[in-house]
Design a protein that fits this description.
This protein has 194 residues and is an alpha/beta fold. Helices cover 35% and strands 22% of the residues. It has a seven-stranded mixed sheet, covered by helices on one side. Helix 1 crosses helix 6 and helix 5 crosses helix 6. The model has no long low-confidence stretch (mean pLDDT 96). 5-O-phosphono-beta-D-ribofuranosylamine (GRF) binds next to helix 1, strand 5 and helix 6. 5-O-phosphono-beta-D-ribofuranosylamine binds next to helix 1, strand 5 and helix 6.
Length: 194
């Protein structure tokens, strides 16, 4: 059975992309076939080129036609540190085949402006004893789509936003490949990925 073709959208360094590239070996049910970014200086591009994966730098991330053409050879789309809102028509085209990873236990600590260090600062400020990572389906709003899976991590009394971010990121690197492989198996067996 051919592997499910995965396109990864990233705006930053791409460590979640790297976790996918490292996990999805030749016998895996999925394969990364394209990396798309809105930033020509994204570290994720170097990782893609290192792995021999084709890349696209979007001229206008709000242009649905440009994005859909970049995703033409994808069955499943993964947002991994992609900071732009996906245009409505692209969300509709990839309904239930478009997922995002977020560095907190949604629905808390999500939404517009909640990304990177700010998320962990907000978790620490709230006094929460646990945090973690969430993979969810993407809809027309930031971080609001149905949750697929979560991985919890403890918040330690001496945590800083950086130490908490590092612990959550390690959980992300386990959770995202697991979810992608599970969805890919469902897609391969003709099932809806939901
Ligand atoms: C991750 O923490 C992810 O959850 C968030 O953005 C960060 C991206 O990190 N949406 P990287 O570019 O994959 O290293």
């Amino acid at each position: 059975m051919p592997p499910v073709r995965v396109a990864v959208l990233a705006s930053g360094g791409g460590t979640n992309l790297q976790a996918l590239l490292d996990t999805l070996g030749p016998d895996a049910p999925a394969r990364v076939v394209r990396v798309v970014t809105n930033r020509a200086d994204a570290g994720a591009l170097d990782r893609a080129r290192q792995a021999g994966v084709p890349t696209t730098v979007l001229r206008d991330p709000a242009d649905a036609a440009e994005l859909l053409s970049a995703l033409a050879d994808a069955d499943l789309v993964v947002l991994a540190g992609y900071l732009k809102l996906v245009p409505r028509t692209a969300v509709a085209r990839f309904r239930h085949r478009l997922i995002n990873i977020h560095p907190a236990l949604l629905p808390a600590f999500g939404g517009p402006g909640m990304y990177g260090r700010r998320v962990h600062e907000a978790v620490l400020a709230s006094g929460a004893a646990v945090s973690g990572a969430t993979v969810h389906y993407v809809d027309e709003q930031y971080d609001r789509g149905p949750i697929i899976a979560q991985r919890r991590v403890p918040v330690r009394p001496d945590d800083t936003p950086d130490t908490l971010a590092a612990r959550v990121l390690a959980a992300e690197h386990e959770l995202l490949p697991e979810v992608v492989m599970n969805l890919a198996r469902k897609i391969q067996h003709g099932g809806e990925s939901r």
